[in-house]
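Subject: Interface between my chains keeps coming out wrong

I've been trying for a while to get a sensible model of this assembly. When I model each chain on its own everything looks fine, but I need the whole thing in one frame so I can look at the contacts. Pasting all components below, labels as-is. Any help appreciated, I'm running out of ideas.
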Amino acid sequence: MTWVTIGLSAGILLSMALVLSYVLGWAAQKFHVDVDPRVVKVINVLPGANCGACGYVGCGEYAEAVVLEHETVTKCVVGGQSCAMAVSRIMGVKIDEMLPYRPLVHCGAHYEDRLGRYAYRGDKRCSAANLVTGVQGCTYGCLGFGDCEGACQFDAIHVVDGLATVDYQSCVGCGACAKVCPRNIITITPFKSHRILAVACSNKDKGKDVMAVCKVGCIGCGACARISNLFSLEDNLSTIDYDAYTPECSLDVMEACNKCPRERLVFVGIPSREDRKKARDLEAPDVVEPDFKTTVDDTEWRG
Amino acid sequence: MDYVVDIFLIAVSAALINNFVLYYFVGICPFIGVSRRVDMALGMGGAVTFVISIASFLSWTITTLVLTPGAPVTKWVGGFFTPAEMAAAVDLTILTYIVYIFVIASSVQFVEMYVRRFYPPLYKSFGVFLPLITTNCAILFACLFIMSKVVGVDDPAQVWDLGRSLTLGFFGGVGFTIAIVIMAGIREELDLCDIPKAFKGAAITLIIGGILAMAFMGFTGVDSGLRAAMGGVP
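Reply #2:
Try treating it as a single job with all components included. I did that and got this:
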């Protein structure tokens, strides 16, 4: 009796397995969908960060667009040149040299540099604070509530003493911070070397007005533009022509940097070996105290 | 006439009164997971209805022909090895779970291949949720519900036939679709609402699910009233 039950159970399961696998095998052949093998290959060489910087929902969709709709192969900023090269090899197209794109924060003022700052009791986000006046004097500069910090998926941008600061070691250049910044002070710029020169100010007002709101903002004196033609003055703001920019800065460029009365022409990027050597001797505090002026507490009730 | 009334009541009961999602609380994960947009919810409901119908057909067939004590196939095959009265007593209901899961998984695979071939946009919008139907408890619940009406019922007139089982499966799927589409409609409106931060996301969704379930409680008792109104045995 027991053996009959056991035998019947085994036999029934076995025969069900046979029948169902036959049906599924038939269906797999009948409903077969041809996937372009290149799509799989492209997905494999993409970084898989699914950050959306290319404009597609994820890496898989971008891969499909590349293969099926002949989308540009260089759109993945996270993968950079090596990734674009691999994709171009699969697709059989040629690409030029590709520069890594990284964000530049065009503001250099920390809390102590900003004037006309008042107590702000609203939603502690830049997008909300940007709607009202009086949060701080400068209507161009960083608000320091860290919308960019929240948007970054790679923990690469932080508000340090009221100023958004990019950690270029972790940054992949997806551009999420630039998109979310309500004051548009972050630009995604092609980095020709690890460190490039940047204008750390966005204020387009006249010098006197800038002096009234910021201790460090560009006053539009035009000293840099007179010394080197790499710089030009647009709307009272020094601007760098990145097409003409070379990693090896010529003497006049360095002189212009030194001449700037507000020291707004600064190098940003991954620190060079000399910088690290210089910083090695600096004494760092043992414990870093959290700064509640700048920390955005996401657990806080916001109504 | 009694049979028609019975079928009608099973349909109403499965779709509304004893709604799988909002009364028995099975199939909650797609109910929460795919109820973001109404069109996706409709697609998911359609897929579940389809799979649940196939699964209830297969589970009724297998239960009646093979698994229940004294089932024809068991009796016939067992008859070769053991006396007829012993073969009739062989009880294979212990196999129900594994067999149902087997059947559900294969039919989901089948549906997935079919949809991928003929409705690629639907396949894309399902994403991971189509394979997840495999472990959708609403479907296993329908199979087990049918089993409970076939196995161990003393009165032969009360044993469910294929028509009743298919009705339960199909209208159970319809009930699931109704619930998930209502939920998706509410959630689409919720996107425009000013929800306190503490309730955002899953929390408000679960609260709404609970309120919906309470609303569906209002149907309780409608079936016996309907049966009495249609002249059946209460």
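Reply #3:
Confirming on my end. The longest helix of chain B spans residues 38-67.
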